[in-house]
Design goal:
The complex is a heterodimer of chains A (about 260) and B (about 325). By secondary structure, chain A is of the alpha/beta class. In chain A, the strands form two sheets. Chain A has a six-stranded mixed beta sheet, with helices on both faces. Chain A has a four-stranded antiparallel beta sheet with strand order 2-1-4-5. Chain A is globular. By secondary structure, chain B is mostly helical. In chain B, about 35% of the residues are buried. The chains are: A alpha/beta (about 260), B mainly alpha (about 325). The interface between A and B is medium-sized, with 29 and 23 residues. The structure holds adenosine-5'-triphosphate and magnesium ion.
């Protein structure tokens, strides 16, 4: 791929340990438990997908991993050290694109580099990632001039330009048409293979999880706990009609269906 | 706006806009007619009260009529300027009518009597005889207003950002701001006399206060309303607090800031008269008071018109600045 892995031998991925995490929100004075004793160990360079019903706490888990919140109970560790604050090594691509409306697409992508004072040395990367998400022709337009899917791709580019070691993706392809979606999935896979980051992907698409991830985690309804964990030992590129994947798909849907009924 | 004008004038504007390039500008002709009427009324009817520049005013309106007459055939060759003129055509017609009516009601019938009212030639007389003093007043007021307004919005903006950003600032500052906000400018005069070395400084303070307070309040509100997820995004991308303030909070609240600046502009003009009460020797506000005291209302009206035109010009300028800075809002609003 166009994106070469970091030149030096510094690890370009990190391990993420979620240890007995329970999380509560204060919702208008009402205590709302969102996560219930979730434990999950993600190896460096692993690709993990999270499945679960709407509102169960998937985005919350990603916010904890990004360091935007600290868990009520339990620990979230990166390479064994507690995560206390956001850090550009761990980048979260939000469920909504949340592009800054006063910045053009290019300037939105540049935010991370600007914030870290790297804009001079790495400016060339902006054009690389824009090309990667096929937005090179839209670098100078404002977010309100983009379609929903294009905005999502711009948000992905804004994360990728920082060469994260842990990429947290919250339904990044939710608004894409099926063709673009397929293409973006492949791009992400290639990128993951070449850059070697750790990836944690939230999705509601079982097929997407099976096509991309090494491991698929199924969460229960709120408060979320892990109800199933499926290892996908198939080499890439995977075919969606692969007999093994079809069997796994049925198994996962069953798990999700059960969690819906409870 | 154009829709409103065309609606009011029964589509007269629309028809002239639709004329072929070589055609006649009907509204231009009509404007020439109303201006000629004003001129004829002024010159032809006897004055019940005499005012200096009656003949001059008749000449000026006559020139105006000639101007529109020429424009009515040439306006289509003037490009962008021509289109603007055509757009305001109905206004020119009404302006001529209004001058004629004003003339009749004051100078010709005396229904609106001296000294409370003045016919148009009364104002013209002021401009012709007193223009030097008026120019000096404009310069003095410009200096006072410029210093006061710009220092006011600068301090107001900085204070507003601090109030919107920092909880502790807001805790102490917001109640104070709410207390200070409604106090009329004249109430400050006693303590400004004590606090400032010269009356000029005190005047600057009053103008700054009037323009700074709305900017501070709206900036604080704007910064407080910024979507939290913008901060989350920026923080995950490695933004420091400084970056969050200058690259997220401020640009996101800029639309609000401009509302505050517009309000500050109007308030600063309203307070000029009070500010120039403080022993100023020149200035439009001083000119207004001085002439009110002598019941020279024609001078008062003449100065008011100048102030209104300057204020309108500044508002226009501010719109240009805003559109330049907030171009990204186009298509959202
Ligand atoms: N900042 C917050 N304050 C209070 N409650 C919150 C907050 N954020 C999320 N919640 C609550 O936590 C629960 C889980 O939210 P979360 O966004 O993690 O769900 P999700 O699994 O990502 O759902 P979806 O698939 O619909 O995106 C929801 O019930 C929501 O109301
Ligand atoms: Mg979510």
């Amino acid at each position: 791929m166009a994106l070469a892995p970091a030149e030096n031998a510094v690890a370009n991925s990190i391990a993420l340990d979620i240890e007995g995490v329970t999380h509560h929100y204060d919702l208008d004075g009402r205590n709302l438990q969102v996560l219930d004793d979730v434990s999950l160990v993600i190896e460096p360079g692993e690709f993990v997908a999270l499945l679960g019903p709407s509102g169960c706490g998937k985005s919350t888990l990603l916010r904890l991993a990004a360091g935007l919140e600290t868990p009520t109970v339990g620990n979230v560790l990166e390479d064994g050290l507690p995560i206390a604050a956001p850090n550009p090594d761990r980048i979260l691509v939000f469920q909504d694109a949340t592009l800054f409306p006063w910045r053009t697409v290019r300037d939105n992508v540049a935010i991370g580099l600007e914030a870290r004072g790297l804009i001079r040395e790495r400016e060339y990367r902006i054009d690389e990632v824009l090309k990667l998400v096929k937005l090179e022709g839209f670098a100078d337009v404002y977010p309100h001039q983009l379609s929903g899917g294009m905005a999502q791709r711009a948000a992905l580019a804004r994360a990728l330009v920082n060469d994260p070691k842990l990429l947290l993706l919250d339904e990044p392809f939710g608004k894409l048409d099926s063709l673009t979606r397929l293409r973006m999935q492949n791009e992400l896979l290639d990128l993951w293979k070449s850059a070697g980051f750790t990836a944690l992907l939230v999705t509601h698409d079982v097929e997407e999880a099976l096509l991309l991830a090494d491991r698929v985690i199924v969460l229960s309804d709120r408060p979320a706990s892990i109800v199933a964990e499926v290892r996908v030992d198939r080499p890439h590129p995977r075919r969606r009609d692969d007999a093994g994947l079809v069997a796994l798909r049925r198994e996962l849907l069953e798990k999700l269906g059960i969690s819906h009924d409870v | 706006m154009s829709a409103a004008i065309e609606g009011t004038f029964g589509g007269a504007g629309r028809r002239s806009l639709a004329l072929p390039v070589t055609g006649l500008w009907r509204n231009g002709l009509l404007a020439a007619g109303t201006w000629l009427l004003a001129s004829a009324v002024t010159y032809g009817l006897p004055d019940v009260i005499t005012w200096g520049a009656t003949e001059l005013f008749a000449i000026v309106t006559l020139l105006g009529a000639a101007f529109f007459l020429v424009l009515s055939v040439t306006v289509h060759r003037l490009g962008g300027l021509g289109r603007t003129l055509v757009h305001y055509g109905p206004w020119f017609i009404v302006l001529g009518l209004w001058l004629a009516i004003w003339e009749v009601l004051t100078a010709k019938l005396g229904w609106l009597p001296k000294p409370f009212f003045s016919p148009p030639q009364g104002l013209l007389h002021v401009y012709v005889t007193d223009w030097e003093r008026l120019l000096i007043c404009v310069a003095y007021t410009g200096r006072l207003w410029g210093l006061g307004f710009f220092s006011g919005i600068l301090v107001g903006f900085a204070g507003g950002v601090a109030l919107g950003w920092s909880k502790r600032f807001a805790y102490w500052g917001m109640p104070l701001l709410k207390l200070i906000g409604p106090v009329p400018a004249s109430a400050w005069i006693p303590c400004t006399f004590f606090l400032f070395p010269t009356t000029f400084h005190a005047s600057i303070f009053l103008v700054a206060l009037a323009s700074g307070i709305p900017v501070a309040i709206l900036t604080a509100a704007g910064v407080g309303q910024v979507n939290r997820s913008f901060y989350d995004v920026a923080r995950t991308l490695g933004a420091s607090n400084r970056f969050l303030i200058f690259k997220v909070a401020i640009p996101a609240s800029l639309p609000n800031v401009f509302v505050g600046v517009f309000m500050g502009l109007y308030y600063s003009f309203a307070v000029l008269v009070v500010a120039e009460m403080l022993g100023a020797k020149f200035g439009l506000g001083w000119y207004l008071q001085f002439n009110t005291a002598y019941s020279a209302y024609a001078n008062v009206y003449a100065a008011l018109i100048i102030m209104a035109l300057i204020c309108a010009g500044l508002v226009r300028l501010l719109f240009v600045v805003r559109d330049r800075l907030l171009g990204w809002q186009k298509g959202i609003l």
